[in-house]
């Protein structure tokens, strides 16, 4: 997967460099407030209650005119994903609860095709993510006895991690408004397609990232 991501980034860079010869490219910076809630399913009967988890992001973007009111907007961001989950347990007749809080940190590269509607704009496209770090906190309480364990999600299970896949492919949709000449405010939805726990240790589980993203950006030119 690392090789696929590297090749994609290199190819995208080559394409953008070629297009810059004929197009007036604009560059900018952006910051993001993020609400995350995963799609999590198991093969068992127990289904966890999921909560929104706050995150943030920061990055850079480019705007490349294509034709008429269309343009291409690639960006490169540091971005947090993850979730919170609560689950009722029953182990050998003893009842209890399990709580999990998972924070995942990614380098995220959306490539959006955008249509400009005067002050407003809409867009959609794929997004490639690569997990670089994270933390999972799992607490289990059984009849008054509580145990809390900490894991690195992207480390191998044999090294004390959870064995999550680092590569994450998503679909991204946005609607935004141009403000103050060079500024923008944008609402987006990131819909993960990859099962990040598709490993032997979690072969019966499905964990896909979901994010609602509020972005503030500024274009330099």
From TrEMBL:
Name of protein: PorT family protein
Tree of life domain: Bacteria
Keywords: Signal
InterPro entries to which the protein is assigned, alphabetical: Beta-barrel_OMP_2
Location of the Outer membrane protein beta-barrel domain: 32-196
Secretion signal span: 1-23
